Amino acid sequence: QIHWMGGGATVPSQPEWYTLQFSDDGQVQVGADCNRGHGAWTTTGRGKLQLGPLAVTRAFCGDDPVNQRFLPGLEKVRSVEFSETRVRLIAPVDDVVLEFEPLSDGD
To answer: Where are the beta strands (DSSP E) in 5-85?
Structure first.
């Protein structure tokens, strides 16, 4: 889901097409609808996260409104929050929160 801090949310029609996979070596793999990419991630302390630069294909995937917010929002992320069932990436510049559920073991 993508939440706006002022209210409202957008849920992708195919949420499993929007993925992030973090590796211990500071790399992140990105799935964004029909686009794929990779880049770096860094942290400067508890709850702090920065992604980018990201190299991502930019194919037109359709008119899903999530497409216009997801990729630009990723590179503006500055913090992260964890709960038992969700990971929230917060991009305060655009007042956007990107919310993810962990993949099951079979995914």
So the answer is: 9-10, 18-22, 27-32, 35-42, 50-56, 79-82
Dihedral (C-alpha) 45, 68, 36, 23: value to the nearest 10 degrees?
A: 10
Secondary structure class of 15 (helix, strand, coil): helix
Structure tokens at 55: 């190299």
90 forms bridges with which residues in the sheet?
Answer: 79, 97
- 20, 35 Cβ separation under 8 angstroms: no
Tokens of 7: 């209210």
pTM of the predicted model over 0.85: no
- Six token digits for residue 35: 């686009």
The pLDDT of residue 105 is above 70: no
Other Cβ atoms closer than 10 A to 49: 19
Give alpha helix (H) positions in 9-101: 65-74
